[in-house]
Amino acid sequence: MNKTNVQELHDVVIRFSGDSGDGMQLTGTLFSDTSALLGNGISTFPDYPAEIRAPQGTVAGVSGFQVHFGSHREINPGDFCDVLIAMNPAALKANRKWLKPGATVIIDGDSVTEEHLKRAGFATLDPIAELNLKDYNVVVPDITSMTREALADMGLDNKSVVKCKNMFALGICFYLYNRPEDHAKRYLDSKFAKKNPVVAEANKRAIDAGYNYAANTHQFANTYTIAPAPLEKGTYRSISGNVATAWGLCAASEKSGLPLFCGSYPITPATVILEELAKRKDLGVKTVQAEDEIAGICTAIGAAYAGNFAVTTTSGPGLSLKSEALGLAVMTELPLVVVDVQRGGPSTGLPTKTEQSDLAQALYGRNGECPVVVMAASSPSDCFHYAFEAGRIAMEHMTPVLLLTDGFIANGSEPWRIPSMKDYPAINPPIAQPSEEMNFMPYARNEKLVRSWAFPGRQGLEHRVGGLEKDCLKGCISHDPKNHQLMVDTRAAKVAKVAEDIPVQEVWGDREGDLLVVGWGGTRGHLQTAVEQMREAGDRVSLCHFNYINPLPRGVREIFKGFRRIVVCELNEGQFANYLRQNLQEFTYEQYNKCEGLPFTVAELVAKFQTLLK
Length: 614
Prior knowledge:
alpha/beta, 6-stranded mixed sheet, 7-stranded mixed sheet
């Protein structure tokens, strides 16, 4: 296995694709984790079908995993792929549009049969010609047959053998990009060795078989290396947005000295947060898998009343169901974090596809005047920071906080430098202490308009909470008109004062120019890459990306004044643009919107920005 033609590349995008049962998510994860261990920057995009199990071999059932790895920090998973691994004709057809010119296509030759081609919707028996792939490097190894041959003496049934073909494909990619096999093999041992060592050995042998095939065939002219990224010194691990969110909530609990309680109902794509928190009994985390969304948030509100750092997790349809109880949390002024992992809507919509669908619902989706703090995370790794921040603001300001992530960053992963907890501030909730010198007034407020948090069971701190309006000091039920107006104003002012406790808004690039690109949440990686490309070409373009939405940070107006045009980019039909029009009416906002269940591509963003500069 003489690797004579080795080329060094700056970055590479690989897309693994096949049927839902072909193990593409695991294959992509093992490849991306191996690349992260080598020090490469990575960004991933798992692309699941919405159907639980679509008919095998159909385009509707194709599952994909895209990984972008390079010699610098990667902040998006790439628009188009350099290599497509297609385990069947349906995967090839579904992903033809994502190929770079001249890309390498590796398709399992055993799957190119009349039956599979018909099932995938091909009109002919020649998918290469039909998809016009003559200018691509198409390699058609018989992956299934070679996997069977490699595992012939292991005593496994045919179904178990065929399940190992994804590891054969992984071995090919390991060879092409000079990746070691050790990490993947250690994972397989940890997963299978104790309960089913034969399965572990079979998968490891399949990796070796794929590696050896690629090394000995003459269909790959070159192999490639990608240098490590110059990352800040520290200990790193690959982390997904959902796991980072769960860990950030645990960190907030630790820094507040209060136990974490999560009451949630499982819903795609947020369920992993509940699952991850359920693992952390060692940190004192309590979780309840409730019977429905309403019960989930109501248990969390009860836990907050009892003195816990309370959390509930959901997605768009669940947030709709939680809206009345969220109003109860606002009325009682209890600290609560609601994590909404957004997906395509409305209704059931696109359960496995991403969209920034819930901003308007987060801002306004409750009856009455019902303000809450709204935040959004921008990448898988910074979900940790903004989950921590959501907990800090909720507990120190005694208010519900809605943290918006989305399916793209929740399921995607990237390297994360594990922080030292000494670098994170202590969280200081305004916990009431009994006093013999004065009567307790549950709605008396400090300079931030924050009431104290009185835990039940403490003598002298007895008080009433509930959904009916309360007296502005005593907390008893009040229907007095002026008191209601005062409480409405006070609750709004309290949320507005959070702006004094968050960072001033920043701009990426110059503070003056021809075009300001505005975004929020999980679109940052694509927007920043597009702006960076245009700035390198000499265009006067900058980026203003928002993580704190309600209240808006200080300094936004001053930034907007410095630009000739402003374009707001979001994966909805203009919810943030309309919010800005409401709050900063003196500016004109262009829009670039997309509702396809997919992230932006850098190419389409650059094309749009160029038209705005003409």
